[in-house]
Amino acid sequence: xxxxxxxxxxxxxxxxxxxxxxxxxxxxxxxxxxxxxxxxxxxxxxxxxxxxxxxxxxxxxxxxxxxxxxxxxxxxxxxxxxxxxxxxxxxxxxxxxxxxxxxxxxxxxxxxxxxxxxxxxxxxxxxxxxxxxxxxxxxxxxxxxxxxxxxxxxxxxxxxxxxxxxxxxxxxxxxxxxxxxxxxxxxxxxxxxxxxxxxxxxxxxxxxxxxxxxxxxxxxxxxxxxxxxxxxxxxxxxxxxxxxxxxxxxxxxxx
Length: 255
What we know:
CATH class of the largest domain: Alpha Beta
Largest sheet: 5 strands, mixed
Structural class: alpha/beta
Number of helices: 7
Number of strands: 10
Number of domains: 2
Low-confidence stretches: none
Helix content: 25-40%
Radius of gyration: 19 Å
CATH architecture of the largest domain: 2-Layer Sandwich
Strand content: 15-25%
């Protein structure tokens, strides 16, 4: 079995593949000061809940935007004798990259691009809604052009609630209308419709620069919450990053 781990700034997504089938996956809070032993305990408990022995894991593929946790997961793998592929631009020679410095590209962005091309063809645009909202762009030749990085939905909401003294913190709900007739309704509208308007506006700018429309795939923990309001998002695939990690691993294994 292949263990795929995507360590984000806010959440870590862990998936277990049997062949190309995602047999189970978990989303946990990223604890940036976790040691390898604490991660091992967490992983062992998650596997135990599914009745899976840790010895069933034959390989691991890892994407991490948190350097300390990348090292901790690698130590975990070494302790458990699990061969590990750490994703970066160097292990993706099959993805042409037009970025000025490929080493700057986050491993999750690479995985999203690889999976999107595999599943939806090229050109393709990925909107990854996490701590940051990332928009990744692949042209008609299958080359990663780059993209757009801006604050994510929760990041914007946290900034609003922490700096506006008269706005109490609450769980944001889908708005019924744009014009809010209470502070709560106005904030719901501003945050959700504002995020959607930003995404749709940025994606339209991408289309203008590409010279044509392309399929748009949303992924990330907030994809389902936002995509229904969007006029540009065509598909929602919450497992896109994990699938990309699997594909990258398989292509490296078959070299």
